[in-house]
From TrEMBL:
GO biological process entries: actin filament polymerization; Arp2/3 complex-mediated actin nucleation
UniProt gene name: LOC113736204
Similarity comment: family membership: Belongs to the ARPC2 family.
Transmembrane feature ranges: none
Glycoprotein among keywords: no
Family matches, as SUPFAM superfamilies: Arp2/3 complex subunits
Protein name: Arp2/3 complex 34 kDa subunit
Gene3D superfamilies linked: 3.30.1460.20
Source organism: Coffea arabica (Arabian coffee)
Main location (coarse class): cytoplasm
Annotated keywords: Actin-binding, Cytoplasm, Cytoskeleton
Length: 376
């Protein structure tokens, strides 16, 4: 039995699990049946258990343990019937649902490898099967969007429903008249990430309000929690990036739009993190390029100053020799320091750059360090 932990710094936009897909393809492409027993962990809370027997090569068992989006969906018999139908629909000829599932898991599947074609279509089918965890979670949100009346409480009041797609990244769904509002509390570790994300949210609101995107879900960003989240635990409302809300109406969940809307909501955190990371990298590259250009200008200015001093200070041979020695030594130190700056590849901060600017722009000229000694 082997165990493997797959680490993810940020959620993947792909529906299938890359690690699970690799394992299933290994069994699919094996020249002879394999004896296989492997545990795979993803996102710290998702576990896959893959079992294959050399004596019965046609049957491969896949068990999945995953937290559900909404705990009220947990049934004594396992997953909701709607979720099981969606899992079965991935590949009805290949997937068989084993009930009850293996102890400690939410779902157990029997995969019939003999029914998978040996061509590109078979590889595509394996990729679809490896997306089973995404299908389980997205099916719950689909069920909520299609059956919104189940979220309504008495006396015409509507309560927020807390959903958890990834650990430490909950969001809320609130049923309101003629629409459903999804609210995302945004949290960031770095202050610079907060600045980048805030600018992005404001731009998202501006673009969403334009005529070109009138059919897109209405987006609102606010530094304080919306009124619909009053009464929620303080730890869920403590953020440094504010709250982003999307209004989902009937036209956003019609037909094929339902699947796209659900997937975009589940991966909104991942998209924001990707945007912040890319923007931060772009800014750092521009700062490095600017710094290298500045160093090159200063270096070229130093060469011109040296040439000017040589022409201006032409005296006795002994004096010129002494001047050349002191100037060459100083230039050597300056050249070494410039090379050190050019090799900088670490993160550049603004306060470091201002200290660098003060030192170089106030650097004294060569003529100020010229010295003469009395010759006997």
């Amino acid at each position: 039995m082997s165990r493997h932990r797959q680490k993810h710094n940020m959620a993947c936009f792909q529906r299938e699990s890359p690690a699970l897909k690799e394992i299933l393809l290994r069994l699919y492409r094996a020249e002879k049946p394999l004896e296989f027993d492997h545990h795979l962990y993803e996102f710290g809370s998702v576990e896959y258990h893959v079992q294959a027997s050399a004596s019965i090569p046609d049957n491969t068992y896949l068990s999945i343990a995953t937290p559900l989006l909404y705990q009220d969906f947990i049934l004594s018999s396992g997953l909701p019937r709607y979720t099981l139908e969606m899992v079965k629909g991935i590949s009805p000829d290949v997937i068989e649902i084993i009930e009850p599932p293996k102890e400690g898991y939410k779902l157990t599947l029997r995969l019939k490898y003999s029914r998978i074609p040996r061509n590109k279509g078979g590889v595509k089918m394996i990729a679809s099967i490896s997306s089973v965890q995404g299908v389980i979670l997205s099916s719950q949100l689909k069920d909520m969007l299609m059956n919104v009346n189940s979220l309504e409480v008495s006396q015409g009041m509507y309560r927020p429903v807390k959903l958890i797609y990834h650990p430490r990244e909950p969001f809320f769904v609130i049923k309101q008249p003629e629409k459903i509002t999804a609210v995302f509390p945004m949290r960031f570790k770095e202050d610079t990430d907060v600045i980048i994300a805030t600018a992005f949210f404001q731009e998202l609101m501006d673009i969403g309000s334009s005529k070109a995107f009138v059919k897109a879900p209405h987006c609102i960003w606010s530094p304080i929690p919306p009124a619909e989240l009053r009464g929620e635990p303080i730890e869920d409302l403590s953020t440094n990036g504010g709250f982003v809300s999307f209004d989902i109406t009937g036209r956003h969940v019609e037909g094929k739009r339902l699947d796209k809307t659900v997937w975009n909501l589940l991966n909104f955190y991942a998209f924001v993190k990707y945007h912040v990371k890319s923007t931060r990298g772009f800014i750092q590259r521009r700062m490095r390029t600017r710094l290298e250009s500045l160093v090159e200008v200063l270096y070229n200015a130093g060469i011109k100053d040296e040439h000017h001093i040589k022409k201006k200070n032409r005296g006795p041979k002994g004096v010129r020799k002494l001047l050349n020695f002191s100037k060459s030594k100083l230039l050597k130190k300056r050249y070494n320091f410039i090379n050190k700056i050019k090799r900088i590849r670490s993160r550049i901060k603004i306060h470091w750059f201002s200290r660098f600017r003060k030192r170089w722009l106030n650097f004294s000229r060569f003529s100020s360090v010229t010295r003469y000694e009395k010759l006997n």
